[in-house]
Structures are given as C-alpha cells and as structure tokens.
Write a structure and sequence with these properties.
An eight-stranded mixed sheet has the order 3-2-1-4-5-8-6-7. The two termini are 28 Å apart. By secondary structure, the chain is of the alpha/beta class. 39% of the residues lie in helices and 25% in strands. It has one domain: Rossmann fold. It is built from eight helices and eight strands; from the N terminus they run H-H-E-H-E-H-E-H-E-H-E-H-H-E-E-E.
C-alpha cells in the first residue's frame, strides 16, 4: 500500500457513482474506450485470454474486454469504484472478477499468470510508476502483452490536458491531473525495458474539440498508448 496517493484515492472515491454516466467527468473515458479496446485486441487477441486490468476504476475497459471474450480481472484500491464496477457487471450480465488489491501484492501472488495486462490512465496518479510497470511485467506470462496509456509531459500536454480539458472545456474536474507526474514516452519506454518488456508500438490519442472526435495516430504529444511484450 506504499505506492498510493491517498488524495488520488479520495478524489476517485468521491466520483465513483459517476463512472457509468456518459455525460459526467468520465465522458472522455467512454469516448476513447473503443480506441483503447481495438488497440489492445489487435495485439492481445482477447478472445479466450486471461486478462488483468490494473486500476480498473468502475470497469469501463474491463467489461468491454470481457465482451470480446476475455476472462477479465479488474483491480483497484478505490473500494467505492470497485463496488460500482461490481454492480454494473451484475446489471449488464458481463462477468468480470474485481479485487481490491495493490498490483505489487498481486504480482507476488500470481507471477506470470495473465496472458495480457492493461494499465490505462493510472501511471500519472501514483507516486512510483516504475513499481507499477515492474509489477505489470511480472504478472504477465513470458511472451504475453502489457499495455499502458498515460499523458506526455510537455507544454502542449499541459495546455490541452490540464488548462483546456479542466479549466476551459470543463471536460474533467479541476485538479484531475498533476502535470509533474506526466511521463514522456522515452521515460515510460525506459521503465518498460528495465522491467523486461519489449516495446511493440506507441500510438497517440488526439481529440478534436470542434468535431468531438477522438482518434489514434502518430501524434503522441498529449495522450498516448503503449504496447509491450514480456521477453523472458
């Protein structure tokens, strides 16, 4: 439990009841989820696979991966978010196992257990992202895939993801992100290599505020996705 920011947990706990409200602060997550899902499925071939979603929140990604035929476990330390995820799973009939456990503890419990591990929009909310990356790598089987998504650290990302999204467009609650915790792709790539992961792909996620459309592309200046493979 040492790699936890209590303020971040409390922040998401206060918003837990809004996870499945597509017009709430979580609207951007609902909108980018199809992009994330297709990116993950393209490398992991989800059907029939055992998948772990680290920092699953209310289960948006976890449920969608289960709908693609994966056997999914979602973990989070925000208990209120997990309760929302469990209730939604019961209502939707999409089976997902949810556990309140730190990824470091689960890595000690189930090393090399999962075919794929996802950790999306979480690394920028923890004190020690390298510990998360290392644990994700430990949890996946040799040859398995690990996926991360986070925010780049540069003036453009600050302008769009913090000032624009939180203060101008009000897409996110003010204070959602701490710019100092954003990670450059080079930094995350180094963390992945240090954890025994081979980089497969990096794709940027961009948003057009005029059309309201999100898309994947080569522009990693703000949000980006990373696919890796465990090499040992």
């Amino acid at each position: 439990m040492s790699n936890v920011d209590a303020q971040e947990l409390e922040k998401f706990s206060q918003l837990a009841h809004k996870w499945w409200d597509k017009d709430s602060e979580f609207k951007p997550l609902h909108e980018i989820n199809p992009l994330r899902l297709d990116f993950i499925d393209g490398y992991a071939a989800l059907a029939g696979k055992t998948v772990l979603d680290v920092g699953c929140g209310g289960g948006i990604l976890a449920e969608s991966m289960a709908e693609r035929g994966a056997s999914v476990t979602g973990i989070d330390l925000a208990k209120k978010s997990l309760k929302v995820a469990q209730l939604h799973s019961l209502e939707s009939g999409v089976p997902v196992e949810y556990r309140c456990v730190a990824v470091e503890d689960l890595a000690a419990e189930k090393p090399g257990y999962y075919d794929a591990v996802t950790c999306m929009e979480m690394l920028e909310h923890v004190p020690d992202p390298q510990s998360i990356v290392r644990s994700c790598a430990r949890l996946v089987k040799p040859g398995g895939t690990v996926f991360f998504s986070t925010l780049n650290r540069n003036p453009k990302a600050y302008l769009l993801a913090v000032v624009g999204a939180e203060y101008v467009l009000n897409l996110l609650t003010r204070g959602t992100h701490d710019y100092a915790r954003f990670l450059k792709p080079s930094e995350l790539s180094r963390m992945a290599r240090n954890a025994g992961l081979e980089l497969l792909d990096i794709r940027g996620m961009s948003y057009n505020p005029v059309t309201g459309i999100h898309k994947l592309g080569s522009d990693t200046d703000v949000n980006y996705l990373m696919a890796c493979r465990r090499i040992d």
